[in-house]
Amino acid sequence: MKATKHDTSYPMVYRAAALEKELREGAKKPFTEIIKANVNDAQAVGQSPITFVRQVLSLVVLPELSNDSRFPEDVKKRAKEILDGCKSGSVGAYSESTGIEVICKQVAKYLELRDGVPSNWANIILTMGSSEGVQYLLSAMNEKVEGKKPGIMIPIPEHPLYSACISEFGMEQVGYYLKEEKSWSPETEELERAYREAAKICRPRAIVVINPGNPTGEILKRRNIMNVIKFAHKHNLFILADEVYQDNIYEGSKFYSFKKTIAQMGSPFSEVELASFMSCSKGYMNESGLKGGYVEVVNTDPQVISMLVKSFSVRLCSGTDGQAALYCMTNPPQPGEPSYEQFKSEKEGIFKSMAARAKMVSDGLNGIPGISCNAVQGAMCAFPQVKIPEKAVAKAKSDNKCPSTFYALQLLEKTGVYVDPGSFFSQKPGTYHFRITILSDYDKLKFILKKIKEFHLKFLEEYK
Amino acid sequence: MKATKHDTSYPMVYRAAALEKELREGAKKPFTEIIKANVNDAQAVGQSPITFVRQVLSLVVLPELSNDSRFPEDVKKRAKEILDGCKSGSVGAYSESTGIEVICKQVAKYLELRDGVPSNWANIILTMGSSEGVQYLLSAMNEKVEGKKPGIMIPIPEHPLYSACISEFGMEQVGYYLKEEKSWSPETEELERAYREAAKICRPRAIVVINPGNPTGEILKRRNIMNVIKFAHKHNLFILADEVYQDNIYEGSKFYSFKKTIAQMGSPFSEVELASFMSCSKGYMNESGLKGGYVEVVNTDPQVISMLVKSFSVRLCSGTDGQAALYCMTNPPQPGEPSYEQFKSEKEGIFKSMAARAKMVSDGLNGIPGISCNAVQGAMCAFPQVKIPEKAVAKAKSDNKCPSTFYALQLLEKTGVYVDPGSFFSQKPGTYHFRITILSDYDKLKFILKKIKEFHLKFLEEYK
Question: Is B307 on the interface with A (CB under 8 A)?
Answer without folding.
Answer: yes
